[in-house]
Design a protein that fits this description.
By secondary structure, this protein is mainly β. The protein is built from no helices and 9 strands. The protein is elongated and about 55 Å long.
């Protein structure tokens, strides 16, 4: 679930919530099952720096039932290309992804962001 609130011409606030239920086992086809229910939350603040350019900061939180809690920041810079498309780049300071099926904690680094709106 995700929601965006545009306060005025310059400020946007967004929130994301996600939950995945499931079990996983470490051995392929054998071994005990572990609860892998996962919760993800993020709070994003976006500011229009100059015409069509937006800076963003996002605080992210991930809790895996049998894997612990991780949290951190993501920052980026976007540009509006026309009325319905936005492209940008940024840096993820966390080790996790918002893809709740990806258990690899190797996602720290640069990213490309593309958003279409209708």
């Amino acid at each position: 679930m995700e929601g965006v609130y545009r306060h005025d011409q310059h400020w946007e606030v967004a929130g994301k919530l996600a939950r995945r239920e499931g079990e996983v086992r470490y051995g392929r086809g054998s071994g005990p099952w572990f609860d892998s229910a996962t919760d993800f939350a993020a709070l994003q603040l976006r500011y229009e720096v100059v015409y069509a350019w937006h800076a963003l900061a996002e605080y992210r939180w991930l809790d895996v039932q049998a894997g612990g809690t991780r949290q951190g920041w993501l920052v980026g810079l976007d540009r509006d290309i026309g009325k319905n498309f936005r492209i940008g780049a940024g840096y993820n300071f966390t080790e996790f992804s918002d893809d709740l099926t990806d258990f690899d904690y190797d996602h720290e680094g640069w990213f490309l962001n593309m958003v279409g709106m209708y």
